[in-house]
């Protein structure tokens, strides 16, 4: 990590995380997309001075993607560690992003690592890796996306302590926008007001409201000289919905807020 | 021939023009004389000689046609208006049409046709437009005049007379092209059915009104309703139904929006009425006009209070309304600065001094000038009193005034600026109507009944429907004490449930659209794709290349390969029948703690989602509800059969369910499961949605009905039906366990019921 990541604490989550890390407890960060979960984990890893290994989980991920596999090359076969094994051996923080997307048989791999045993059995090598004392497992979980067939099993959920994230308060979000992009306070306040109107539509047609990340994109576009209304449409309206009526309502909100 | 003077203003019969006109008209039919006298005076002055000759000559032809006095009277009444508007170029065409009508069986339509000419001329402007209108009428007449044998035309057109009677109203709403499309649609669709045709053209039937709405120019409220609802939700976090309002003369005058707050005993119903169609005005398009109206009304809803109206005069009330509207508009502009440009475009440009105090009452004008000074920064009032009030208004806005402060300010305004001329009957209206403001009916509370018009809409009370049921079926009941059945103990009446409004269910479904979207993803995966691949088989029908490769790699690298390298394709089709039986007893009307919905509404939403889910998957679903009033009258309400599609009819029945009486579960299960048992599906599922333990008014033993229900469940499971209960009330868990064993789900948070129901169904039928 070359630069320190910017993160504006919303409450006392920094101290709480440090306490969790001191006990090496596995951590679950929950919240809507784009509200700062991954940024928080990066920041904490930087604060604690530990390396961070991030894995983006998807439906095709098998257990061997996490643990490791044999690869064939000219000299024969050799074992290559997966990201989880690497983290366990070297004492890094392993961050599994959107863990619920992975298949159920994949997530069971982490069961052994997350209780008092702190060991990772590798069947193919007939080896059990004992986790480094500095190892910690962090997963992120977005409760809004749970389909009825896919959910974390209670036996998995109960192995973690959880941090609940949400979009920041108005004043904080304005400060975040200014910190990330350097735009003035007034357009930042208008962008946040626009985000609030879109978030009011969550459950009334929108699956998720506008995330802080999209606001940062809009502010970056405006800093490049794009006209505010066009920047808002590009970053805040077109990515989140294809429904014509919702787009019209959000366009109306843009027209109403930007003079 | 001598004319007898009649009426108090007797015309001057010595005028030779009268006599010659009367002689030219040459008509002695009854009633024509009085009409002649009424119109002659004005026409003799306004029309030229040639036009007059045309008027009287044609009148004479009409009189001699032998169709009575009605055509002549209509002619004399309406044709002069047409001539004044556009001259008499179209005279020949009109007479040609009249003769064509005369020769056809449609002669009764001559008088209505002549009667429609004046409106047509007014709306269509030029003689050419009038000619096209006449062509339209002639074409329609030829298309729809019926014949028995298919050769001669012998039956008059059923739709012609209703059409001509409605033309004035239609031309107010539609252009000529729109009218032509509407007429052609009706002629084409209802060619074979005279009664339907008459209903269509008389604007009685639903499809004619719907077709009319579609032809109207401008933006219809029903087309943009969804986006307006979303804007309301997004900007104001308000969810209020929008109701289209039609003006009395159907669109010619202005319809003002109306925010209706009906506070009844159980709940507060708010609805916002908006004009049903709008056109662009002063460069502002119709959707923006709608949005301004919406936001103004929402501003009132959020920021306005109520005033008692009884002590104030109409002038005082008017001023209070204007001041409060100005305050709301200023607050809107503060919050959403982007509204400034449409608002200023729609603001009428009133000028001070435009009102002539000698002839008009100028209160409205003064208020309009004040309003403009307050809203438009570029305009400054000259009158020092007005300026003083503008300053006071600004100070009040700074101090975050509310409705009562504004009301005091308004009353002082009326007192200070009162003039004697305000009492005059003619009011100066120009520039005093702002497009987006509502009629402020919500602002006033009347303690005494006055003679103001009642602006609240009275709710309609539909008479309750008579229910007809099938003859009762007799079912046995299990007696747990004697461990035997009581034969023919219970009478079950099956009713077809009366229909309500399907739109209620659609609205409930919209509230759960997030859940539906998630379900859709799941359903897309579950939907039978035709073939399914089974992998990792030791014995299959083909080799799975990926796994075979993996096995070879393992072999080469010195490990034991996994021998399950084969796969098999099989056809995957779902064959599930589901019967849902809903408990409709009186406990459903209770409110869910912590929410404003009743258990009934949540159950409706859950069943609606289930119905939609199964319609997507293509599974068979039947819905029924039950309640009981002793063993002699167990009512089973049929909501949906296996063969009925999930559509508006079923939704209507679902919307109308009313909770009442008690729960006699066993009999309902026996009756409800009968069609399910007879079906040939491989998997049969009976879902029971209940919130209480089985109980009835004529049974005192609490276990009796529960044991009976338990027996039914056992019998059904022996017959291959899988029974599952969804229990809504946590207190009755014990009795549910008695009846259903482990096959139940307890829903403690009712809001999760839709999700639970859908998820349960999917898990049980995976």
Share of helical residues of chain B = 40-55%
Q: DSSP helix count of chain A?
A: 11
Mean pLDDT of chain A: 87
Biggest β-sheet strands, sense, barrel of chain B: 8 strands, mixed
Unreliable stretches covering 5 or more consecutive residues of chain B? 458-465
Number of helices of chain B: 27
**How far apart are the termini of chain B?**
99 Å
Distance N to C terminus of chain A: 42 Å
Topology record:
The complex is a heterodimer of chains A (259) and B (766).
Chain A: H1 13-22, E1 27-30, H2 37-48, E2 52-56, H3 63-67, E3 68-73, E4 76-81, H4 83-90, E5 93-97, H5 104-107, E6 119-122, E7 127-130, E8 136-141, H6 154-157, E9 161-164, H7 170-181, H8 185-200, H9 212-223, H10 228-237, H11 244-257
Parallel strand pairs in A: 1-8, 1-9, 2-5, 5-8
Antiparallel strand pairs in A: 3-4, 6-7
Chain B: H1 16-25, H2 32-46, H3 49-64, H4 70-86, H5 91-103, H6 110-124, H7 127-144, H8 160-173, H9 176-189, H10 194-201, H11 206-215, E1 219-220, H12 221-236, E2 242-245, E3 258-263, E4 268-275, E5 277-278, H13 286-303, E6 307-308, H14 314-335, H15 340-346, H16 363-375, H17 384-398, H18 403-416, E7 444-445, E8 473-479, E9 484-496, H19 502-511, H20 513-526, E10 530-537, E11 542-543, H21 545-556, E12 566-572, E13 576-583, H22 599-617, E14 620-628, E15 634-640, H23 648-655, H24 665-678, E16 683-690, H25 702-718, E17 721-727, H26 733-740, E18 744-746, H27 753-764
Parallel strand pairs in B: 2-4, 6-7, 9-15, 13-14, 13-16, 16-17, 17-18
Antiparallel strand pairs in B: 1-5, 3-4, 8-9, 10-12, 11-12, 14-15
Helix pairs in contact in B: 1-3, 2-4, 3-4, 4-6, 5-7, 6-7, 6-8, 7-9, 9-11, 12-13, 13-14, 14-16, 14-18, 16-17, 17-18, 19-23, 20-22, 22-27, 24-25, 25-26
């Amino acid at each position: 990590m070359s630069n320190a990541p910017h993160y504006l604490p919303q409450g006392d989550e920094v101290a709480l995380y440090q306490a969790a890390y001191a006990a090496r407890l596995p951590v679950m960060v929950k919240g809507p997309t784009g509200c700062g979960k991954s940024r928080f984990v990066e920041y904490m890893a930087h604060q604690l001075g530990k390396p961070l290994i991030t894995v983006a989980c998807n439906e095709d991920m098998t257990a061997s993607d996490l643990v490791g596999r044999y690869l064939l090359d000219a000299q024969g076969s050799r074992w290559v560690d997966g990201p989880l094994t690497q983290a366990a051996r070297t004492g890094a923080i392993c961050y599994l992003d959107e863990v619920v997307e992975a298949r159920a048989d994949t997530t069971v791999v982490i069961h052994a690592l997350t209780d008092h045993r702190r060991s990772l059995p590798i069947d193919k090598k007939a080896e059990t890796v004992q986790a480094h004392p500095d190892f910690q497992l962090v997963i992120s979980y977005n409760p809004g996306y749970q389909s009825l067939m896919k959910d974390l099993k209670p036996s998995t959920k109960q192995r973690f302590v959880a941090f609940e994230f949400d979009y920041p308060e108005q004043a904080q979000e304005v400060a975040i926008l200014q910190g990330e992009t350097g735009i003035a306070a007034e357009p930042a306040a208008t962008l946040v007001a626009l985000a609030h109107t879109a978030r009011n539509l969550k459950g009334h047609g929108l699956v998720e409201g506008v995330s802080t990340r999209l606001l940062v994109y809009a502010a970056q576009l405006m800093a490049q000289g794009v006209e505010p209304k066009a920047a808002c449409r590009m970053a805040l309206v077109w990515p989140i919905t294809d429904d014509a009526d919702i787009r019209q309502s959000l366009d109306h909100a843009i027209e109403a807020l930007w003079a | 021939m001598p004319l007898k003077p009649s009426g108090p203003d007797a015309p001057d019969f010595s005028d030779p023009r009268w006599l010659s006109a009367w002689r030219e008209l040459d008509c002695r039919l009854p009633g024509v004389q009085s009409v002649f006298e009424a119109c002659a005076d004005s026409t003799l002055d306004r029309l030229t000689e040639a036009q007059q000759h045309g008027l009287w000559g044609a009148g004479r032809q009409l009189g001699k046609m032998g169709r009575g006095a009605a055509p002549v009277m209509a002619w004399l009444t309406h044709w002069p208006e047409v001539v004044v508007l556009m001259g008499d170029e179209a005279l020949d065409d009109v007479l040609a049409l009249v003769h064509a009508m005369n020769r056809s069986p449609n002669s009764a339509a001559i008088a209505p046709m002549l009667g429609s000419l004046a409106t047509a001329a007014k709306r269509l402007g030029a003689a050419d437009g009038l000619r096209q209108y006449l062509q339209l009428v002639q074409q329609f007449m030829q298309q729809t005049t019926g014949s028995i044998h298919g050769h001669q035309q012998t039956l008059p057109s059923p739709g012609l007379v209703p059409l001509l009677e409605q033309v004035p109203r239609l031309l107010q709403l539609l252009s000529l092209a729109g009218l032509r499309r509407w007429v052609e649609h009706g002629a084409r669709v209802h060619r074979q059915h005279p009664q339907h045709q008459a209903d269509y053209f008389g604007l009685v039937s639903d499809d004619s009104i719907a077709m009319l709405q579609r032809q109207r120019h401008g933006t219809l409220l029903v087309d943009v309703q969804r986006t307006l609802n979303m804007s309301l939700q997004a900007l104001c976090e308000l969810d209020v139904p929008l109701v289209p309002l039609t003006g009395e003369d159907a669109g010619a005058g202005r319809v003002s929006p109306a925010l209706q707050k009906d506070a009844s005993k159980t709940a507060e119903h708010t609805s916002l009425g908006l004009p049903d169609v709008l056109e662009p005005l002063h460069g502002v398009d119709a959707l923006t006009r709608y949005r301004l109206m919406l936001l103004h009304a929402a501003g009132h809803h959020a920021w306005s209070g109520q005033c008692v109206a009884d002590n104030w005069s109409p002038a005082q009330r008017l001023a209070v309304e204007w001041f409060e509207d100005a305050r709301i508009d200023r607050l809107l502009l503060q919050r959403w600065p982007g509204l400034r440009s449409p608002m200023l475009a729609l603001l009428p440009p009133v000028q001070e001094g435009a009102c002539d105090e000698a002839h008009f009452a100028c209160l409205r004008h003064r208020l309009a000038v004040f309003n403009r000074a307050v809203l438009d920064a570029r305009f400054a009032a000259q009158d020092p009193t007005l300026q003083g009030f503008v300053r006071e208004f600004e100070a009040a806005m700074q101090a975050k005034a509310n409705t009562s402060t504004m009301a005091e300010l308004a009353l002082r305004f009326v007192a200070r600026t009162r003039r004697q001329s305000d009492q005059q009957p003619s009011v100066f209206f120009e520039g005093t109507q702002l497009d987006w403001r509502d009629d402020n009916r919500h602002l006033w509370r009347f303690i005494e009944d006055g003679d103001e018009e009642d602006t609240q809409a009275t709710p309609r009370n539909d008479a309750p429907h008579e229910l007809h049921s099938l003859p009762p079926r007799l079912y046995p009941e299990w007696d747990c004490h004697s461990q035997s059945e009581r034969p023919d103990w219970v009478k079950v009446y099956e009713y077809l449930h009366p229909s309500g409004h399907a739109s209620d269910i659609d609205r409930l479904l919209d509230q759960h659209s997030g859940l539906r979207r998630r379900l859709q993803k799941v359903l897309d995966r579950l939907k039978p794709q035709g073939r399914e691949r089974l992998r990792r088989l030791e014995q299959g029908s083909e080799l799975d290349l990926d796994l075979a490769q993996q096995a070879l790699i393992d072999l080469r690298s010195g490990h034991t390969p996994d021998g399950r390298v084969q796969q098999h394709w099989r056809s995957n089709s779902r064959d599930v029948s589901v019967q849902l039986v809903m408990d409709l007893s009186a406990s459903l009307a209770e409110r869910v703690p912590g929410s404003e919905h009743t258990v009934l509404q949540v159950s409706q939403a859950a069943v609606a989602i289930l119905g939609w889910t199964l319609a997507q998957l293509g599974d068979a679903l039947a819905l029924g509800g039950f309640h009981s009033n002793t063993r002699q009258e167990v009512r089973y309400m049929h909501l949906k059969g296996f063969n009925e599609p999930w559509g508006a009819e079923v939704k209507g029945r679902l919307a109308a369910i009313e909770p009442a009486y008690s729960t006699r579960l066993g009999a309902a299960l026996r009756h409800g499961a009968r069609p399910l048992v007879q079906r040939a599906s491989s998997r049969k599922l009976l879902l029971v949605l209940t919130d209480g333990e089985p109980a009835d008014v004529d049974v005192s033993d609490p276990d009796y009905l529960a044991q009976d229900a338990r027996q039914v469940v056992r019998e059904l499971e022996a017959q291959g039906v899988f029974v599952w209960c969804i229990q809504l009330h946590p207190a009755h868990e014990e009795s549910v366990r008695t009846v259903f064993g482990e096959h139940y789900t307890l829903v403690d948070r009712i809001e999760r019921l839709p999700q639970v129901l859908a998820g349960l169904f999917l898990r049980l039928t995976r």
